Amino acid sequence: MGTDCSTIRMEFKPLGGRKVVADFAGGQLTSDAGVLLLMRLDQHLDLLRRFAACFKDRRDPELIEHTVEDLVRQRVFALTLGYEDLNDHDELSRDPLLATVVGKDDPSGDGRLRDRDKGRPLAGKSTLNRMELTPEKLNPDNRYQKITLDFAAVEALLVDVFLEAYTTIPAQVILDLDATDDPIHGQQEGRFFHGYYKEYCYLPLYVFCGEHLLCAQLRSSNIDASAGTEEVLERLVSRIRQRWPGVRIIVRGDSGFARDGIMAWCEAHQVDYVLGLAKNSRLVATLEGEMAQAKSQWEQTRQASRVFKDFVYRTRDSWSCERRVVGKAEHLDNGANPRFVVTSLPVKEWDARGLYEDLYCARGEMENRIKEQQLCLFADRTSCGKMRANQIRLWFSSMAYVLTSALRRLGLAGTELASARCDTIRLKLLKIGAAVRISVRRVLISIASSFPLKELFQEILRRLESLPMRC
């Protein structure tokens, strides 16, 4: 990116007889040339145009220079590149390559209307901030906040992108449910202290199917972790079955979701489930013989020992019917470790050990996906005063995750980065230095000759170019 600090010179330790001097006069440079891959990928997914279509722009078109689609592209691409804060965009607004992938006709910004904006082809932090802060009920007299978002449309888009990722209808899909903590940044709306996490936080609900993100719903933390799950399942299952009428759906989650209402809903809608079940004295007593057997095996081998038991169980008051429970009697070096799951799946399909070890324990991979979004794509940057604005920020991060996950799935399969985390993909493939030269007829991006993964980059681009373009 260009800068006004071209007169600053910095001297370093000499190299032999040569002085080592640096300045900021390199011209139009970018450190993010890999965003070209994301631009080509989005032409296949048509994700960001459809996300932008979820917004309603009530600004006077004669008075704006940045469309909603421009703003959406700028914000999501920046998140994938590692720019988590809106403050970053005051400098990013100068980047000619980011302006190119956003779709600006004048990536140099020389044609901006106001003199103070010339050289800045993209929006600054204030313009982007207004897109997040407009309340649900628009005040027509408000001078700045005139862009609203249709929440239901965003929720539907996440599911549609998931459905489109399959070239053939799967026989079965597993929906993983989980809630996590999102620390609060001050006196914000929805601020409550959570006893388990020992902090003031939000408690967002996530739903994944493998790598695919289907739901990211921001919630206050003064609720049960499972609150609202039945409504989310109703929306997701109906939309999935509308496209795939015969698909089998299994819901998977930890003990926070083993609630009678959720299980009864699944049973009434022909949805299977396997959920963790919090232990209690009755459950532990049922597993007493197996625990003794596991301890005996551990004493003989000094290796972790597991024995499983399949039985039918019903709570005294909270469950409406009996259900199948699998108990894991485990003895470790530090003692007994009993665990339980409740399921609607029949024994003939899944025996006790396979159900627990192969099916239920696989839900742990979802936690890695949540960590990716929070740690690598800044889903926890929810510092606005209002929950609505923070939900919008969570969805911007969600779109960045969908884009990066699709790059991994469609571009990196079978390569050394096939299972790389989002921040590794960013470091290896997106953060690439390049010179940008803009003329009347072309934008030339000259990527650093020393880039070590140039062959992989070209292979990924070939793969993406082979995909059909939707936009």
Domain module count: 2
Unreliable segments of 5+ consecutive residues: 1-5
**Overall strand count:** 19
Count of DSSP H/I helices: 16
Distance between the termini: 28 Å
Note the main sheet: 9 strands, mixed
What does this entry look like structurally?
- This protein is α+β, with helices and mostly antiparallel strands.
- It folds into two domains: 29-149 and 414-465, no CATH class; 152-375, Transposase Inhibitor Protein From Tn5, Chain A, domain 1, CATH 3.90.350.10.
- Helix content is 38%, strand content 21%.
- It has 16 helices and 19 strands.
- The protein has helices at 35-45, 47-53, 68-80, 89-92, 96-102, 125-133, 151-164, 229-243, 260-268, 281-286, 288-301, 352-360, 364-376, 387-411, 422-430, 454-465; strands at residues 9-15, 18-23, 29-30, 55-57, 147-149, 172-179, 182-183, 192-194, 199-202, 205-209, 212-217, 248-253, 272-277, 305-313, 323-332, 335-336, 339-343, 434-438, 443-447.
- The strands form five sheets. Strands 6, 10, 11, 12, 13, 14, 15, 16 and 17 form a nine-stranded mixed beta sheet that branches. Strands 3-18-19 form a three-stranded antiparallel beta sheet, covered by helices on one side.
- Helix 2 crosses helix 3 and helix 3 (68-80) packs across helix 14.
Concise structural overview:
By secondary structure, the protein is α+β, with helices and mostly antiparallel strands. The protein is 38% helix and 21% strand.
What key attributes describe this structure?
9-stranded mixed sheet; alpha+beta; Transposase Inhibitor Protein From Tn5, Chain A, domain 1; disordered N terminus; 471 residues; 2 domains; 16 helices
